[in-house]
Amino acid sequence: xxxxxHLNLFNLHIIGVQKAGTTALAHFLNQxxxxxxxxxxxAHVFDHPDFSDSKDKTAFAHHRYNAKLTNYQDQxxxxxATPITAFRTxxxxxxxxxxxxxxxxxxxxxxxxxxASHYRMSLSRGQEHRTMLxxxxxxxxxxxxxxxxxxxxxxxxxxxxxxxxxxxxxxxLKRVLAIxxxxxxxxxxxxDLQQNHEHVLHQxxxxxxxxxxxxxxxxVYVGNKLKPRMSDALAKFYAKCYxxxxxxxxxxxxxxxxxx
Length: 260
Description:
The protein is about 40% helix and about 10% strand. By secondary structure, the chain is of the alpha/beta class. Helix 4 (about 110-125) packs across helix 10 (about 230-245). Helix 2 (about 55-65) links the parallel strand 2 (about 35) and strand 3 (about 75-80).
């Protein structure tokens, strides 16, 4: 994708993971005078159903991004926080090819809590009607047969019902590291952003090359407060077993990162 003729390329991408604090991080970054976060946070350029079929992908990306710069005032850093990007190779490759000099950030979260939060979001949006336990148990069957190539529509089950699949971080990290140079990637944990807010933000500011500023900690987004069901505990136990069998743990994730 040739983007050499376009100015104001987006040069910071928060590429994952969904329900891990990306909204809060985007909000905090947007407080910096040298950072502009895309309008509504998620530009959905490379995962847009029309992107893969576009004859001129450069023009498509440029048009989509320009529409997300309503109040842009020449900030040095232009940030897109579309967290599905790391979940699929095609999206990630297109994002990197758009601007190979960009920086990339991934936020991770306990995959069990991430899955539960994802479920509650889908339920509140009317995209889910089963119990958490039912949704987790049926996930492999709901995703079975869904095409893994070609565009995913915005109502595709892989977007809304991949509660456990999206928590398989090992595969995603390997995918990311196969495409993005290690020095252009920063991997953080949601808990660190919550517990060491100032330190982590300064780390990010240094990573993206802007002068650190103090951004007050605050609760940006409160998850969907739905009345828990008795079976939710069983759903989380099932998720724990699911991730344990796949050896999804922080030690393994760090080992993958340390190899690069």
